[in-house]
Specification:
The chain has helices at about 5-25, 35-55, 60-65, 70-90, 100-105, 110-120, 130-140, 150-175, 180-205, 210-215, 215-235, 240-250, 250-265, 270-295. By secondary structure, it is mostly helical. The relative contact order is 0.22.
């Protein structure tokens, strides 16, 4: 399979898992708090990925002479960003519904190209900017601006979107000097779990008994969304640049909204459905336009 097609499949699969995981995140806080849920799911992600690390990349890393200090610093920074994105997203679900949290999370689509272009001089195809605008318009159709409680929850999601945006950009940068995607996915989950556990143990009651009461939701969010999906994310970013891949990941907002509608009876009116269609169209356009230019003009 072509490497770019493989990465594209990974990115779409990742967005499906992330989107449907919003339901598990929303249902998983009956007995535990948002910090505890975030720490537990990330720890599960680390445990799930650890065997893959030893099977596929451990020997390669031992054989390579790596800058250990730089590697550890990157993993700590990625873990911090990952923890921040998870925590703000998780807390937001206490105040807003799944559809809003899922959709406003994908505002990282707007932030990623700005970071990549203005901070790192990353070339961006012209199709990204109208796609970003379409995502914003779609997000407005999916939002509820008249509800103060919801607006507070949405604000938390927007703050989290900055963490996700920087995470996507720095994963791409890290892969250029440390091309071991499973290792990155594994140990960013570990460092993120450690960062998340600090407020969990400080502000919330944590015990195996209460964690077991949310076992189903934690397994889905931890094993699939934090473990497998983060590995798929990094595999996707091996062959796709940050801005276009961020737009593909934005499909999580669509899948999250649909999952909430089907599983939690969170109604999608005609405006929200229209917003989903706009975001989906933006994703398709952002991927087809560069392919068309390459074939017609022979350029990237």
């Amino acid at each position: 399979m072509d490497k770019k097609i493989f990465s594209l499949v990974c990115a779409i699969s990742c967005s499906i898992i992330w989107g449907t995981a919003f339901v598990a995140q929303d249902m998983g806080m009956d007995y535990i708090g948002p910090y505890t849920f975030s720490a537990a799911r990330l720890a599960l992600g680390f445990i799930v990925l650890l065997p893959f690390f030893f099977i596929f990349e451990f020997k390669k890393i031992i054989e390579n002479k790596l800058n250990l200090k730089t590697t550890i610093l990157y993993l700590l920074f990625l873990g911090f960003l990952l923890a921040g994105g998870n925590i703000f997203q998780q807390i937001s679900l206490l105040y807003t519904d799944v559809a809003n949290s899922a959709v406003f999370t994908v505002l990282y689509v707007v932030i990623v190209p700005v970071i990549a272009y203005f901070l790192f001089s990353k070339k961006i195809h012209k199709s990204v900017w109208p796609s970003v605008l379409m995502c914003l318009i779609g997000g407005l159709f999916l939002s509820e601006l008249g509800n103060l409680r919801v607006r507070y929850g949405d604000s938390l999601v927007v703050i989290g979107a900055f963490f996700w945006a920087f995470h996507i950009v720095f994963v791409s940068k890290f892969l250029k000097i440390f091309n071991f995607p499973i290792t990155i996915a594994t140990f960013q989950c570990l460092t993120a779990a450690l960062f998340s556990s600090i407020p969990a143990f400080t502000f919330e009651y944590v015990s195996l008994k209460v964690l077991s009461l949310e076992a189903t939701e934690l397994i889905y969010a931890g094993v699939l969304s934090s473990g497998i999906a983060f590995m798929l994310q990094i595999l996707a970013q091996q062959n796709l640049s940050p801005a276009p891949v961020a737009i593909i990941f934005s499909l999580e907002g669509v899948f999250g909204s649909v999952a909430a509608w089907l599983m939690l009876d969170q109604f999608l009116n005609e405006f929200k459905i229209f917003g989903i269609i706009i975001i989906l169209s933006a994703v398709i356009f952002s991927q087809l336009a560069p392919m068309y230019d390459k074939r017609k003009y022979g350029r990237n």
